[in-house]
Write a structure and sequence with these properties.
- The chain is mainly alpha-helical.
- The chain has two domains: 70 residues, no CATH class; 84 residues.
- It has eight helices and no strands.
- α1 packs across α2.
- The radius of gyration is 26 Å and the shape is flat.
- The two termini are 26 Å apart.
Length: 176
């Protein structure tokens, strides 16, 4: 993300942005870093750092962004290839494990929240401890709901954007 900001706005903008954030911190090392960035910003404004050097730094950041984009493209290609293989599999479980996982997570979440609501509304004396214990399951739910959320959002977007006829061929063409 830093590379995207740099390639879009350039190094002087980033220096000012980071400097303004560091100025507000009370830590000594943050103050030193803010002072150093202020000096770099002054050097840029006074043209002690040539525009050719700034252009080279920005060009380097753009190249880094291109490399990052290529990595993202390769990653998405691998994901699409995996999903295509799952969709074309003869085994029903391989084809439908993602939706089955999503529905099972949704059901488990509904049961959990329903139980917590019942405990609170029924006035159980240890309801506070039960709710506090729910915090311990955060990492488990974050992974499960992350998978479910990504799948639901993507599916919803596809359903809204797809035409009624030839949907499968359109999706396959979009993936490839």
């Amino acid at each position: 993300m830093l590379v995207k900001i740099l390639s879009r706005f350039g190094l002087p903008f980033l220096i000012k942005l980071v400097n303004s954030g560091l100025e507000k911190l009370s830590d000594a090392s943050a103050k030193k870093a803010s002072q150093a960035l202020g000096e770099v910003s002054s050097a840029i404004n006074e043209q002690k750092i040539s525009s050719a050097d700034l252009s080279e730094a920005n060009r380097h950041m753009e190249k880094m962004q291109e490399l990052e984009n290529e990595l993202d493209k390769q990653t998405l290609s691998e994901i699409h290839q995996t999903i295509r293989q799952e969709l074309n599999a003869e085994d029903k479980f391989v084809r439908f494990w993602r939706p089955a996982f999503g529905y099972s997570v949704a059901l488990a979440w509904l049961l959990t929240i329903g139980t917590v609501c019942y405990v609170v509304l029924a006035g159980y004396p240890n309801a506070e401890n039960i709710i506090a214990a729910l915090v311990e399951t955060t990492s488990l739910w974050s992974v499960a709901l992350g998978v479910l959320g990504l799948q639901v959002v993507k599916t919803s977007q596809e359903k809204q954007n797809r035409p009624k006829e030839g949907m499968i061929s359109k999706v396959i063409n979009k993936i490839t």
